Recover the amino acids of this structure.
């Protein structure tokens, strides 16, 4: 049994609610016997219909959510009995059309006293292991406080069952419908992680949706099926505790059909402080 | 003037880099655009822009974190618009100063001799690039270099040295050993040292850019002059102190539109082949010639 219990109340399990939505299976791969190294973790996630975006594959925000979950899990296992929080995520996406399932491998490339860096690689099993994305994720090491971390090693989390009638990601993450340069998310308790703060994957999905809305009217998008997020850099500056959460976008420019959007995310209810900043590349598809 | 910690003949001097602290949490750093720092289509190399960003970030971080010291943890750069001015300028500002990290954002813009952005058709053109950096905070222990640096570093300075007279990769002494695998090598010498005596962050970006371009160019059946690197996502894991530092590139994909991506790893071969850096590189086919020499 793998589990962590933060005492965040009844109802949804804050450790599994978001990963179960994406049906992310996680399997720890210990290092070879006698070798001093951190475990790798391999994840698998199907590309269910409700997760697909205009390009035909899993939306990049959803992919980032799985990367955040798997990279965080890998980093956390590396520093037990301490735990981690994500501080930055840099992803380059090479393929927006997926068959699925996607297979993600996370390897610790540096473990320091205060931080852990993991390299993540994503391939499409259903398309002959075609490459989908590469990412680098940095986590800060934290004292877990009251959180109880219980893991049977090697750790394994099974793929959740399909959820008939599951909502699309923007609805699941309570992103308010609209358009233009500002996009809002309601901070529902079910979107909080075991620390009680907004799940990093929810922030990534908000960045994806907000950047796409901001870039939708740019030249090059007309006459296409829509727009989709590609490469992403996100710096998680502060935790989101109160909400609502607002993503404010600035379109920096378009180059070779790719629009670069600066995204600044604010916790409106917490003195409007900036909680995440980064840039998203948006493509017409 | 010479900057403490840097020799008189240095990459930053040859790039003619001039820096200015503009507020307690902002700075700007500029270099002249010449053919020696240009891509095959006449833009400025992503690695050179990353060098500017590395300098502006370091200048801000050294002051903001004093008396603590700093280590660069990551740097990202995305090219956006063309270079229209005779200079490019990185303008950096602090996004967040935490207990263990400092995050800085930078916009790179084209400017004229007076530091003014040129107008095109009555509007300011798109920025040349967007960038970000994270620094790890290293707590001060007694009298450390950071204390000397912050008291000695002026508000405005330029790195001394001559003008770059050869292509920047040649100046850094990048050697191509195998194009297809992106195996390139660079010696660690004072010309490319940072203040730790290790390979400077900008030189690391230049090596990764060149390695990614060689591998992606070869994968397209050509060479590095067929592609332009547009995005760098750099994770600095360890210092490259001994050298030579050698790259290895893994091509991830080549799209129908000619865009491609690669992961480049840098190893310090003189230090037990230690992995020092992981870089995600994106590139596009070389386009019509613009900017320098157009």
């Amino acid at each position: 049994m793998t589990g962590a219990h933060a005492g965040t109340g009844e109802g949804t399990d804050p450790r599994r609610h978001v990963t179960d939505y994406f049906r992310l299976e996680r399997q720890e791969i210990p290092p070879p016997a006698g070798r001093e190294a951190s475990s790798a973790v391999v994840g698998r996630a199907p590309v269910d219909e409700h997760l697909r975006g205009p390009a035909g594959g899993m939306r990049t925000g959803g992919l980032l959510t799985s990367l955040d979950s798997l990279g965080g899990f890998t980093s956390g296992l590396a520093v037990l009995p301490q735990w981690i929080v994500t501080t930055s995520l840099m992803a380059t996406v090479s393929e927006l059309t997926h068959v699925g399932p996607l297979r993600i491998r996370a390897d610790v490339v540096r473990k320091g006293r205060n931080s852990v860096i993991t390299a993540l690689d994503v391939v499409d099993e259903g398309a002959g292991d075609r490459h989908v994305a590469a990412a680098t994720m940095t986590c800060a090491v934290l004292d877990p406080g009251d959180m109880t971390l219980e893991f049977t090693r090697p750790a394994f989390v099974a793929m959740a069952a399909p959820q008939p009638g599951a909502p699309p990601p923007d609805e699941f993450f309570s992103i308010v419908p609209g358009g233009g340069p500002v996009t809002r998310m309601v901070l529902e308790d079910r979107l909080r992680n075991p620390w009680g703060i907004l799940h990093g994957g929810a922030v990534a999905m908000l960045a994806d949706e907000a950047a796409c809305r901001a870039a939708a009217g740019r030249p090059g998008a007309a006459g296409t099926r829509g727009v989709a997020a590609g490469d992403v850099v996100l710096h998680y500056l502060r935790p989101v505790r109160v909400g609502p959460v607002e993503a404010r976008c600035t379109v920096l420019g378009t180059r070779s059909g790719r629009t670069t959007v600066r995204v600044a995310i604010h916790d409106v209810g917490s003195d409007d402080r900036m909680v995440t900043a980064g840039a998203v590349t948006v493509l017409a598809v | 003037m010479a900057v403490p910690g840097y020799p008189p003949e240095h990459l930053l001097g040859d790039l003619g880099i001039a820096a200015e602290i503009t507020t307690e949490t902002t700075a700007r750093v500029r270099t002249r655009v010449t053919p020696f720092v240009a891509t095959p289509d006449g833009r400025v190399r992503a690695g050179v822009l990353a060098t500017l960003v590395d300098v502006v970030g370091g200048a801000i971080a050294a002051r903001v974190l004093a008396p603590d010291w700093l280590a660069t943890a990551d740097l990202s750069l995305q090219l956006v618009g063309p270079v229209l001015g005779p200079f490019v300028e990185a303008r950096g500002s602090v996004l967040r100063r935490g207990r263990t990290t400092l995050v800085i954002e930078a916009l790179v813009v084209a400017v004229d001799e007076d530091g003014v952005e040129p107008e095109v058709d009555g509007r300011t053109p798109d920025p040349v690039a967007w960038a970000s950096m994270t620094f790890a905070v290293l707590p001060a222990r007694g009298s450390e270099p950071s204390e000397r640096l912050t008291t000695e570093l002026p508000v405005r300075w330029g790195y001394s040295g001559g003008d770059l007279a050869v292509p920047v990769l040649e100046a850094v002494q990048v050697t191509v050993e195998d194009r297809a695998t992106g195996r390139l090598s660079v010696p660690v010498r004072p010309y490319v040292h940072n203040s730790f005596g290790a390979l400077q962050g900008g030189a690391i970006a230049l090596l990764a850019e060149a390695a990614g371009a060689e591998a992606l160019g070869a994968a397209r059946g050509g060479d590095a002059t067929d592609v332009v690197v547009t995005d760098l996502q750099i994770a600095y894991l360890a210092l490259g102190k001994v050298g030579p530092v050698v790259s290895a590139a893994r091509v991830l994909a080549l799209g129908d539109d000619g865009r491609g991506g690669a992961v480049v790893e840098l190893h310090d071969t003189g230090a037990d082949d230690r992995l020092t850096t992981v870089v995600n590189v994106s590139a596009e086919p070389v386009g019509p010639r613009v900017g320098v020499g157009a």
